[in-house]
Write a structure and sequence with these properties.
- The chain is of the alpha+beta class.
- Helix content is 27%, strand content 40%.
- The chain is built from 3 helices and 9 strands.
- Strands 3, 4, 6, 8 and 9 form a 5-stranded antiparallel sheet that branches.
Length: 146
């Protein structure tokens, strides 16, 4: 089923309070067999639901670092891809900074796009992380999962 001898490899999967750099994740998955590297960058925006966001905080369950690995591993074997790197931040994250990023390499672009999208959807649905947004109008909102 797989092109060449490579099986999908999860090379990096973290939940961290450090900045996430999509270029670094992309470098981790790039390899000579790859014809495609697809990335996703989820950045903190300055609005949500018609309100202006003043600040954003992500809080995690203690199981989140292990869960991000399990989530990614549960998906990657479904696709003809080569390497995957995924990272999600927690803590206070400034508007415009990256909160969540995924990089996928594959021999062909469609497999890389499909796998990247599936990983993003699954992490957003199942990673035990909560977003607390404070709005400029003084209200706030908690959102379960990213």
């Amino acid at each position: 089923r797989w092109q060449g001898s490579l099986m999908p490899e999860l090379v990096y999967a973290v939940v961290t309070d450090a900045p996430v750099n999509i270029a670094e994740l992309s470098k981790l998955v790039t390899n000579p067999q790859s014809g495609a590297v697809v990335t996703f960058c989820g950045d903190v925006r300055n609005h949500d639901g018609g309100k202006e966001v003043a600040s954003l905080l992500y809080e995690i369950h203690p199981s989140a670092p292990e869960q991000i690995k399990l989530i990614a591993e549960s998906i990657i074997d479904r696709f003809e891809i080569e390497k995957v790197a995924v990272a999600h931040r927690y803590g206070n994250i400034a508007i415009g900074e990256t909160a969540f990023a995924v990089a996928v390499s594959a021999a062909h672009r469609q497999a890389a796009f499909d796998a990247c999208s599936a990983i993003v959807d699954e992490v957003k649905a199942n990673l035990p992380i909560w977003k607390h947004q404070k709005f400029t109008d003084g209200t706030d909102q908690w959102v379960n999962c990213a």
